[in-house]
Task: inverse folding
């Protein structure tokens, strides 16, 4: 079992950690990439779930040797499809329960590579929004994970030293970002699928 009893703050990734958004994003990005003339394989996306929008678009262009004609339009199409399917969104119960159990005992934050509009909408749709003292998104920092920026910004907003923050993550880039920020962390797969 994980021990974070000496930690002042818990920081949670959102997509794939608190919320099971990857299947909804897979459908949404399928729509977002339609103008490239290349269909996005679902498995390709699931291997890259959690990437920030522009990092994912860079990967799509590189892997499939295509050009996204209009990135703003692609993101708009993706978001519209995402919001059309938000009623399918579910929390990842084991991790959400850790946040609930620590509300009022420790500072709690979300640090997500997603856009604020989507992250906040998803947290509100699943009744998790009010658990968190701070929500930090890609809109708040210059660099996405694996850079430590999101986690350092969350610690700063919580007024807590990085070495007193414990991170819950589901991606390699997120785990690298937490380490780079000087924070202890766990791959949530170890909790969800012990």
Result:
């Amino acid at each position: 079992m994980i021990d974070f009893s000496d930690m002042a703050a818990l920081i949670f990734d959102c997509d794939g950690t608190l919320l099971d958004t990857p299947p909804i994003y897979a459908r949404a990005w399928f729509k977002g990439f339609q103008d490239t003339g290349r269909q996005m394989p679902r498995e390709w996306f699931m291997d890259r779930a959690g990437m920030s929008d522009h990092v994912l678009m860079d990967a799509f262009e590189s892997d499939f040797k295509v050009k996204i004609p209009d990135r703003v339009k692609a993101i708009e199409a993706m978001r519209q499809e995402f919001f059309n399917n938000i009623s399918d969104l579910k929390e990842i119960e084991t991790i959400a329960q850790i946040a609930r159990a620590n509300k009022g005992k420790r500072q709690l934050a979300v640090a997500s590579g997603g856009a604020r509009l989507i992250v906040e909408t998803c947290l509100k749709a699943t009744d998790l929004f009010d658990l968190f003292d701070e929500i930090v998104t890609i809109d708040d920092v210059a660099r996405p994970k694996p850079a430590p920026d999101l986690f350092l910004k969350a610690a700063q907003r919580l007024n807590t030293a990085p070495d007193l923050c414990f991170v819950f993550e589901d991606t390699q880039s997120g785990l690298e970002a937490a380490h780079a920020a000087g924070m202890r962390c766990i791959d949530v797969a170890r909790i969800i699928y012990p």
